[in-house]
Amino acid sequence: MTMKQETLAMYERLKARLDRVVPDFELRLKAELAVEIEQLKRERNAVILGHNYMEPALYHSICDFTGDSLELSRRAAETDKDVIIFCGVKFMAETAKILSPNKTVLLPAQRAGCSLAAGITADDVRQLKRQFPGVPVVTYVNTYADVKAETDVCCTSGNAAEVVRALNSDAILFLPDEYLGRNVAHETGRAFHLATPGLTPAQLQRPCLIGWKARCEVHERFTVEDVTRAREHFPDVCVLAHPECPPEVIAQVDFAGSTMAMVRKVKESKAARFLLLTECSMGDNIIAENPDKEMVRMCSLRCPHMNEITMQDTLEALRQMRYVIEVPEDIRQRAHAAVARMIAIRGGTTGYAQK
User: Which of 275, 305, 316, 317 shows a CA-CA span of 20 to 30 A to 125?
Assistant: First the structure.
């Protein structure tokens, strides 16, 4: 097949999937880029991972696996590919490197960070361990490698409550997302304390989670009014939210779960109309895969860090083998141990889809 034929075939594939969500001129441009990327991917023996928050044309064209960040890294580690391109943000690419130390891991955009991951440092965790000696540390996978290295066990948004229950401890440091911590505390019947310099172990209302004041800059902006307004206009709407949203929002929605849990919910639900309280590109990606469902267009929150990842940058990453992710081996080994402990609890499954 010639390059022109491949491009036409890619365009027709994207058109069939994304006609409702992406303009035609963009599909034609992205089809050309996708074919170039696919060719380079073969030459480099590379695998491309696409997080659920990627823009639709990228998500539905060049990705070998799509889904939640941890499971993507696990799937890439199982392949025979030499290069991993992670279309996500830096902490996700670091996790891929933690699980695949002998593979080259590339991040397409140098500035693809994360407000939540940047909200806590390894020094912060060490200080908390001194403040609360002997208290086990559970760290969300949405953190950088050096933070994971200071952790007893990692968790995902989908298995956080299960990890907390498995530790069988009346006090747990749960880091760093404050709202996820509050929601998990409620789910597991625990008190929640924000870590402050003056808080002592004796002051803890046990059983409890001790949390940290860091939040996702997207999910923290959703409000109860968003849910109320949606239901006023669309009484039959099914509202889904990510557990990084504020607890008062979670209390009002029909379903709360990880990104892959929300994907499954939409697919399996008999409801016809949905509102997703999460990063907005995900709604477009879900609708493309569920043409019989309707997504309420009340969301306008795009993660600025995920938005850094483009198809052009992905192409350049492959061309130049640029933005290589490195994790010092001592940190990698300790971070890997924290991830492995989580996997031992329940396989750490968050779900993935092979394209």
Answer: 305
Residues 322, 106 contacting (CB under 8 angstroms): yes
Tokens of 193: 């304390």
Bridge partners (DSSP) listed for residue 321: none
Provide the CB-side half-sphere exposure for 264 (13 A, CA). 14
Which domains does the chain possess?
Answer: 3-112+307-326 (3.40.50.10800), 117-211 (3.40.50.10800), 219-302 (3.40.50.10800)
In 78-168, where does DSSP find H-type helix? 90-99, 122-131, 145-148, 160-167
Contact 58, 80 (CB under 8 A): no
Question: How does residue 147 score in pLDDT terms, banded at 50, 70 and 90?
Answer: very high
What percentage of the chain's residues is helix, strand, coil (to nearest 5)? 45, 15, 35
Buried b (16+ CB within 10 A) or exposed e, 137-165: bbbbbbbbbbbbbbbbbbbbbbbbbbbbe
Q: What is the C-alpha to C-alpha distance for residues 89 and 71, in angstroms, rounded to an integer?
A: 15
pLDDT over threshold 50, residue 354: no
Q: 169 pairs with which residues across the strands?
A: none
C-alpha distances out from residue 208 to 148, 181, 190, Å = 21, 10, 5
- Distance (Å, whole) CA 118 – CA 334: 19
* Residues 339 and 104: beta-carbon distance below 8 Å: no
The CA distance from 154 to 221, in Å, is 25
Helix or strand run (H / E) with residue 239? strand 238-241
Of the candidate ranges 35-49, 212-226, 283-297, the one whose mean pLDDT is the lowest: 283-297
Pairing of strands 83-87, 104-106: parallel
| Alpha helix ranges (H) inside the chain | 3-18, 24-44, 56-59, 69-77, 90-99, 122-131, 145-148, 160-167, 178-187, 224-233, 247-250, 259-268, 280-289, 311-320, 329-346
Report the SS3 class of residue 276: strand
HEC letters along 103-116: CEEECCCCCCCCCC
3-state secondary structure (DSSP) of residue 198: coil
- 23: its two tokens: 């303009």
Whether the Cβ atoms of residue 148 and residue 117 lie closer than 8 Å to each other: no
